[in-house]
């Protein structure tokens, strides 16, 4: 059995990964990659407990759970599952069997990284190695948990649309089957998901047995399904890479033209209402008027296009990297709780401050990014060594500099910093 460096080093991605997966196009199971301390089934259940807690409190968060019995999504059961008294230690399976009135069940949790700091950090180390060795997905990544004793994946045999890694946490093994899109269509006559009894199809698929600590690479456009006999927990890490045309169409062009054609108040010519259109003249003059506005707007857009693209790419790049590679979403519970735990009154000379793993502080010119957010402070306020140490993930001792202290307080609002009180004055008194 191959012994992998932990975390994976760059050579794994540039050599073994590309070789084993035919340059990222074929499934492959990498055995015993994730140490048990980095990701455990109990960490997933703790994240689910956080979702239940916020449900009872009426707090809206990004992470959400779905309950399935067989291949049926049971939204009718979810309120009871989220609000019922919790399970006894070691009794989760029986607890959910009772609530679903079913012997077999599956629980799917999206954006688990926003409710489980342990998993965000533990699997964040794997993600950081991926970013360094393989590349950066411009939409970031997510943690999606699959929990249960289900006989087969609730979505049936289905196609994946992103490159993804399936991390198996155990405690029991899982069987996984994959088919290329071409093979699946030839076998079934369609590219639609296959539900019900597909046992006949399994013998035609590539079979993998996942055990705790294993990682299965699933390329996009590969059909797959998981089966198991006993309770287990797996966490998928989908990588969100968007078509360049989609980024231009959905994000960059709307941003660019919104800035050029923004409403500047009733006195600005761009905000003047269009005149009444003469019925007898038809639509021609209307089209001409819009064309006369569109031509100079497009010309101005073209002149500023390179700068706008650079600004967007830089913003997206720093957002994803400073957020540890995870996608940036509203309603990040772990971020909110970390920001609330950051007490600005503890930011005093002599206190120790560090960046919370797996997040990063990035300095880009005069801009600072931390945990996905750009902070409205001048980067030059931070002494070079302070900025370098925080960017490297090294803990710093705060100096007696009010400008630095003010900057750290502002950075703490992102939920990306941890402070340990040990002021200079306290140290002097102890001495």
From TrEMBL:
Domain JmjC, chain residue ranges per copy: 104-256
Database matches in InterPro entries: JmjC_dom (IPR003347)
Protein's name in the database: Cupin superfamily protein
Organism: Parafrankia irregularis
């Amino acid at each position: 059995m191959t012994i992998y460096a932990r975390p994976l080093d760059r050579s794994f991605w540039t050599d073994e990964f590309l070789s084993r997966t035919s340059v990222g196009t074929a499934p492959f199971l990498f055995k015993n990659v994730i140490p048990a301390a980095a990701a455990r089934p109990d960490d997933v259940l703790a994240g689910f407990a956080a979702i239940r807690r916020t449900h009872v409190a009426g707090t809206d968060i990004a992470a959400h759970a779905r309950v399935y019995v067989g291949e049926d999504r049971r939204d009718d059961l979810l309120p009871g599952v989220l609000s019922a008294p919790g399970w006894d230690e070691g009794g989760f399976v029986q607890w959910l069997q009772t609530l679903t009135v079913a012997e077999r069940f599956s629980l799917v949790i999206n954006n688990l990284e926003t409710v489980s700091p342990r998993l965000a950090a533990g699997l964040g180390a794997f993600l950081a190695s991926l970013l360094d060795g393989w590349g950066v997905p411009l939409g970031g990544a997510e943690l999606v948990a699959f929990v249960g004793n289900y006989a087969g994946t609730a979505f049936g045999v289905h196609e994946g649309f992103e490159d993804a890694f399936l991390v198996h946490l155990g405690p029991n093994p899982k069987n996984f089957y994959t088919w290329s899109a071409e093979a699946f269509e030839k076998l079934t006559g369609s590219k639609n998901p296959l539900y019900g009894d597909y046992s006949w199809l399994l013998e035609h698929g590539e079979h993998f047995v996942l055990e705790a600590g294993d990682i299965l690479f699933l390329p996009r456009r590969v059909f797959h399904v998981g089966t198991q006999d006993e309770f287990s927990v797996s966490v998928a890490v989908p990588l969100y890479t968007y078509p360049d045309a989609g980024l231009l169409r959905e994000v960059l062009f709307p941003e660019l033209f919104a800035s050029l054609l923004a409403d500047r108040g009733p006195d600005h010519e761009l905000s003047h209402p269009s005149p009444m259109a003469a019925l007898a003249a038809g639509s021609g003059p209307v089209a001409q008027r819009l064309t006369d506005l569109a031509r100079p707007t497009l010309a101005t857009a073209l002149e500023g296009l390179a700068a706008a693209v650079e600004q967007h790419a830089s913003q997206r790049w720093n957002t994803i990297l400073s957020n540890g590679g995870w996608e940036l979403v509203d309603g990040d519970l772990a971020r909110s709780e970390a920001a609330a735990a950051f007490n600005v009154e503890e930011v005093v000379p002599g206190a120790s401050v560090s960046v919370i793993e797996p997040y990063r502080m990035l300095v880009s010119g005069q801009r600072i990014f931390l945990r996905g957010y750009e902070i409205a402070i001048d980067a030059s306020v931070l002494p070079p060594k302070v900025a370098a140490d925080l960017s490297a993930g090294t803990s710093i001792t705060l100096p007696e500099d009010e400008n630095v202290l003010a900057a750290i307080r502002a950075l703490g609002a992102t939920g990306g910093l941890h402070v340990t009180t040990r002021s200079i004055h306290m140290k002097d008194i102890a001495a």
